[in-house]
Amino acid sequence: MSWRKLLFWIHLVTGCTAGAIILVMSVTGSLLAFKRQVINWCDRDYRSPPSAGNAARLPVEAMMAAIIAQYHATPSAITIHFDPAEPAEAVFGRDHVFLIDSHTGNVLGESAPRARLFFQQMENWHRWLGAGTEKRATARAVTGACNLGFLVLVISGPFLWMPRRWSWRSVRAVAAFQRGLSGRARDFNWHNVIGIWCALPLFLIVLSGVVMSYSWANNLLYRVTGSEPPAQRAELEPRQREQTRRGEKVEPGVAGLDRLWARAEQQVTGWRSVTLRISPPQRAPIAFTIDTGGGGRPDQRSQLTLNRSTAELVRWEPFSSYNTGRRLRSWLRFLHTGEAGGIGGQTLAGMASTGAAVLVGTGLCLAWRRVFKRS
Questions:
Q1: pLDDT tens, 113-161?
Q2: 34 near 187, Cβ under 8 Å?
Q3: Cα dihedral sign for 196, 200, 201, 205?
Q4: Distances in whole angstroms, Cα of residue 356 to Cα of each of 25, 115, 143, 165, 192
Q5: Phi/psi at 367 (nearest 5 deg)?
Q6: What is the pLDDT of residues 250-281, one digit of tens each?
Q7: How far is the C-alpha of 308 from the C-alpha of 310, rounded, in Å?
Q8: Alpha-helical runs (H) found in the chain
Q9: CA separation, residue 272 to residues 83, 338, 370 (Å)
Q10: What is the dihedral of CA 179, 185, 186, 191, to 10 degrees?
Q11: How far is CA 120 from the centre of its chain?
Q12: Kindly report the CA angle at 211 between 354 and 19, in degrees rounded to 5?
């Protein structure tokens, strides 16, 4: 058996085995392409510059007091934007974000609840095939394996379409859509053309997905760059872990946030947003994420860790301080969604994901026709 024929059968069997799951991930990926822009558009009515009498921004603790008083719960995170027209964002878990007028403390409402619910469901299908919490480990293993199979398809595809004899006519036959085709000839043409033009963006999307799916791939990324893989995430503080085991509610503390927030704002000139994940009251340091961009580039994000009691600097981690492995790992997250390239990158990622869905459809049709000898 020639290498080309062997590669063809690997491609065919992998596509038929993982095709349905790849189709789900591709469709949901294309629907998630402009998530941030859609949510921002839904929240457009909440943006307004402050009035003349309310030009100064309220302290963080005052804003927190307003949201706690209205919803009788402490947010898990809060984000404040430098733009005075942008409301502050109070996050409750993963599903609910409430907007606060940062100059008056008024709770404006929930941020795009329907859009966020839709995108949350799409993410659940994209990552876990819509499985419930108790079955997500199994579903994640399935999507991870199919993503790895997808990488095999993306790599093997270009070798299969290469003509045996190079000429303009032979290249055009597989690189450009042909009119008047139907049945197997049409599917073959579409499969080749879309595969060729989507190969590079799909390679980046799928490769980043493999790294995010498997710890061995993540560690390999660090090792090939000469960096030490990150240690496993530290466990919960013993007292908090024991309270969680007994079912007790561990309420985060908000006292002293004003001083900590003022210190965080002084760390970077030209910041556009500062985010704090509010942890339960304990002596552990408190971490801020400071972003000088629009939220889609890791090189514009920095991590600041302060002593919760004294506001003294514990750790300052700008992107430039990361080792090569961590830098690449940070970029892969945003390459996967296309956000690393801005709106153009997101458009390209969305088009590639849509193309992947068509590749699955045409590939399965070609396999069906081959098995049953249909034209």
A1: 999 999 999 999 999 999 988 999 999 999 999 999 999 999 999 889 8
A2: no
A3: positive
A4: 9, 24, 15, 27, 12
A5: -65, -40
A6: 455 677 889 999 999 999 989 999 999 887 65
A7: 6
A8: 3-31, 35-42, 60-71, 113-128, 136-161, 168-175, 183-213, 215-224, 238-245, 257-265, 324-337, 342-372
A9: 7, 21, 56
A10: -120
A11: 12
A12: 40
Q: What are phi and psi of 269, to 5 degrees?
A: -85, 135
pLDDT in tens, 82-103: 998 999 999 988 778 999 998 8
> Two tokens at 224?
């090939």
Which residue reads 């399965």 in tokens?
364
Alpha carbon distance 328, 361 (integer Å): 33
Least Cα distance to 354 among 30, 18, 20 occurs for 30
Cα–Cα dist 35/33, whole Å: 6
Q: Measured between alpha carbons, how far is 83 from 100 in angstroms, rounded to an integer?
A: 14
How far is 191 from 175, CA to CA, in rounded Å?
10
For 279-333, write each residue's pLDDT tens digit: 765 557 889 999 999 888 999 999 999 998 888 999 999 999 999 999 999 999 9
Long-range contacts of 51-57 (CB under 8 A, 24+ apart): 51/103, 54/103, 54/104, 55/84, 55/103, 56/103, 57/84, 57/102, 57/103
